[in-house]
Specification:
119 residues; 2 domains
């Protein structure tokens, strides 16, 4: 079994859980899901809107507050997307923007790129 990453935040203590395998009791594995927040980092081969939908679903499941959503977004968006948002907002730090502002910046960036590459 892979080790888990633990954090001392008051919201969640575990950020990753091992995939279910047949050597694990189903009930115990399901119980651990309540303390887990994990989503794959955004991949530029994925549509931004679809990834945001999944992230917002996770926010609802794990009761992530509005105040913390910016930090989750910036962490889980991954390195490539973080560099894009930093470049778009420079010299302003992304963490000073609201969640909706950050999502909108990225939505506009990817919409612009999609229109550029369409035949």
């Amino acid at each position: 079994m892979a080790s888990t990453l633990r954090c001392s935040t008051s919201v969640h203590t575990v950020f990753h859980i091992e995939p279910f395998d047949t050597n694990t009791q189903w009930g115990r594995w399901i119980d651990r899901l309540e303390d887990v927040f994990h989503i794959e980092p955004f991949d530029t081969n994925t549509q931004w809107g679809r990834w945001i939908d999944r992230l917002e679903d996770a926010f609802e499941i794990f009761n992530i507050t509005e105040e913390r959503r910016v930090f989750y977004l910036l962490h889980y968006m991954g390195n490539e997307a973080y560099n894009i948002v930093c470049d778009k907002l420079a010299p302003v730090q992304p963490r000073t923007k609201s969640y909706d502002e950050l999502v909108d910046v990225m939505k506009k960036h990817f919409r612009c790129n999609e229109e550029t590459f369409q035949p």
